[in-house]
What we know:
By secondary structure, the chain is mainly beta. The protein has helices spanning 2-15, 62-66, and strands at residues 20-28, 36-44, 51-59, 76-82, 96-104, 108-117, 122-131, 136-145. The protein has one domain. It contains two helices and eight strands; from the N terminus they run αβββαβββββ. The strands form two sheets. A four-stranded antiparallel beta sheet has the order 1-2-3-4, with no helix packed on it. A four-stranded antiparallel beta sheet has the order 5-6-7-8, with no helix packed on it. A hairpin with a 7-residue loop joins β1 and β2. The protein is elongated and about 50 Å long. 19% of the residues are buried. Mean pLDDT is 86; it is low at 1-14.
Amino acid sequence: MKKAFIALGLMMIGGFANAEVIGSVNTTFKLIGANDKILVEAFDDPQIKGVSCSLSRAKTGGISGSVGLAEDSSDAALSCQQIGEIVIPDDIEDGENVFEKETSIFFKTMKVVRFYDKKRKVINYLVYSTKIIDGSPKNSVATVAVRPWK
Length: 150
């Protein structure tokens, strides 16, 4: 059983994009520990070459945030754009996780999932937050039109 969980965890890690921190701004001063901030991160879709996304999200500071015990807010915004030729794989799945970030030690996760709209020839990305018992309705969506790249 323990080996199954480890294998599942390793498979999940391999399927998500890795984000690169582009910058941040402080939002609340904390006397002890890091300040609360908004992070701006960038990641490329791991399965669809030619698409890059920027995600802004809240990061809790203070002592608990500095040691990884704080729960981050579910507030986030998402923007995605075409940065090269887009080729849609035949085996693309709607609702597939593209990016995941743990936002609490208590099973809270921020996720970005992808939906391909064949009729309109656009890729939709949705960011939202889940929690083991109750997630958040806060969300943001970004759409990338699939167009020829020059």
